[in-house]
UniProtKB/TrEMBL annotation:
GO molecular function, one term: NADP binding
Catalytic activity: D-glucose 6-phosphate + NADP(+) = 6-phospho-D-glucono-1,5-lactone + NADPH + H(+)
Catalytic-site annotation from UniProt: H240 (proton acceptor)
Record's protein name: Glucose-6-phosphate 1-dehydrogenase
Length: 483
């Protein structure tokens, strides 16, 4: 399919934390890709801002190095690279102090869209927002992008929201969750609301359960100490898995506007029933073959933080009563896989005895490694031999169906372009984040009070045995985490 890239309006994008890991690995490579496909207009500017003292030339050299490292074919794109780098400048700014702010003011053009990407620790959000206002940098339609984690609990999320709202309107705040920038996640909305096929089936009458898995094969090496303060529930479930759950469970919005979509997502979170501790399994990976355990990496031999969590969640509303959602995420698992599996009920009357107890239809929405959609169906095996049945998958991999452009687009670059366009649909609203914390907080505080150790699991496995039981006891089973 021919790529249909629509250039955005000219912009000044300030990346606070431009020398940091996220900027180097995702933000700047993403912008470079948008530039190479022609989405960045001629006079777009990217202004890096961080504490390190350097000039434009040194910053451009740093970015060149990152692009060569993180963009697969960057060394074949010398001319594009030079042109892109010429759009970059750098200002040394102290987020908490006064240094550099006047220089930043002079970098910005009047009457041009301004976006400010805060790729820094959330403890700097308030200071940066206040400094921006004090220096008159934020115009009425400036956009501010903030990274996860958005709070550690409900109280800290509320505090962050009020810090940001002191200086910006909600319509200017873009809380990023890069899962929402994935092609398949948006396709879930297209699949559900642009087709008449699914909607009549999308309820507890026809859907037995939904499984949402975000499995990572890597452990917490290198960021163990940081992760240990958070755990899988805060790091993954409260945000990424919750977003996937919302998009799967939400009612059709009346129109495709940011607030109509986000209103429906908030309603899902508010409909979540409190989760029983008996419906949750927490895990922590062991060490093996000289590879350290979770506790080794966390630097705490007695850490009770979970590197894995699986749970059964009930959405208490008319559509989903009787259809549980099983969520599962963890580190050091068998493979890096993310998917939503919508598993349909068996036919009410089975005329094929051989199919008794076998898995029914399922719609699998795969987020990684290869974004795509699979429909699991049963058909008759071709040829003689009577009515022999076989399970087949109707598969659509976006890269194949839609061409290389779809494959190459990263969530970050898509979301940054949405910021420039002023489209908040794929960003979390303040009340949405708070609702998700209000749901997660009692679960986490229950663990903190009980001080029960998470179950241990082997690296390279599918998590603790108990997690399998969570579904087995109800006659269901997890899909394999496929390598
Ligand atoms: P990082 O590598 O530690 O980079 C932090 C950046 O902040 C650096 O550019 C640093 O500048 C700048 N900075 C620190 N203190 C500053 C100050 N007082 N004034 C101005 N700039 C200051 O962090 P990161 O991994 O890029 O993460 C950035 C944010 O994104 C964090 O909130 C993180 O949780 C979130 N995030 C990161 C990832 C990821 O994959 N890395 C993924 C999701 C979310 P100097 O280096 O010049 O001091």
């Amino acid at each position: 399919m021919v790529s249909r890239v629509i250039p955005v309006d000219p912009f000044d994008l300030v990346v606070f934390g431009a020398t940091g890991d996220l900027a180097k690995r995702k933000i700047l490579p993403g912008l470079f890709h948008r530039f190479t496909v022609g989405q960045m207009p001629e006079d777009a500017r990217v202004i890096g801002a961080a504490r390190s003292d350097m000039d434009n030339t040194a910053f451009q050299a740093l970015v060149r190095q990152s692009l060569l490292e993180f963009v697969p074919n960057a060394d074949d794109l010398t001319a594009e690279l030079d042109l892109f780098l010429s759009k970059l400048s750098y200002v040394c700014v102290d987020a908490k102090g006064t240094k550099g702010w006047d220089n930043l003011v002079s970098e910005l053009r009047p009457d041009t869209i301004r976006a400010f990407y805060l790729s820094v620790t959330p403890s700097l959000f308030g200071a940066i927002a206040a400094n921006m206002n004090a220096h008159g940098i934020a115009t009425k339609d400036s956009r501010i992008v903030v990274e996860k984690p958005f709070g550690h609990d409900l109280a800290s999320a509320k505090a962050l929201n009020s810090e940001l709202r002191r200086n910006f309107e909600e319509s200017q705040i873009y809380r990023i969750d890069h899962y929402l920038g994935k092609e398949t996640v948006q396709n879930l909305m297209a699949l559900r609301f642009a087709n008449s096929l699914w909607e009549p089936l999308w309820n507890s009458t026809h859907i037995d359960h939904v499984q949402i898995t975000v499995a990572e094969s890597l452990g917490v090496e290198g960021r163990g100490e940081y992760y240990d303060k958070s755990g899988a529930m805060r790091d993954m479930v409260q945000n990424h898995l919750m977003q996937l759950l919302c998009l799967t469970a939400m009612e059709p919005p009346s129109r495709l506007t940011p607030n109509a979509v986000r209103d429906e997502k908030v309603k899902v979170i508010e409909a979540l029933e409190p989760v029983e501790q008996s419906d949750i399994v927490r895990g922590q990976y062991r060490g093996r073959d000289g590879e350290g355990s979770y506790r080794d990496h966390a630097g705490d031999p007695e850490s009770l933080t979970e590197s894995f969590v699986a749970m059964k969640v009930k959405v208490g509303n008319w559509r989903w009563s009787g259809t549980p959602f099983y969520l599962r995420t963890g580190k050091k698992l068998r493979a890096r896989t993310s998917e939503i599996a919508v598993v349909f009920r068996d036919p009410p009357h089975m005329i094929f005895p051989a199919l008794e107890g076998r898995r029914g239809n399922a719609l699998i929405i795969r987020l990684q490694p290869d974004e795509g959609i699979t429909l699991r169906t049963t058909i008759k095996e071709p040829g003689p031999g009577g009515m022999r049945l076989a399970e087949v998958s109707l598969d659509m991999t976006f890269a194949e169906a839609l061409g290389a452009d779809a494959e190459a687009q990263d969530a970050y670059e898509r979301l940054i372009m949405d910021v420039i366009r002023g489209d908040q649909t794929l960003f979390m609203r303040g009340d949405e984040v708070e609702a998700a914390w209000a749901w997660a907080d009692p679960i986490i505080s229950g663990w903190e009070e009980s001080r029960l150790a998470p179950a241990r699991y082997d690296p390279g496995s599918s998590g603790p045995e108990d997690a399998l039981m969570l579904m087995h006891r109800e006659g269901r089973r997890w899909r394999e985490i496929e390598v």
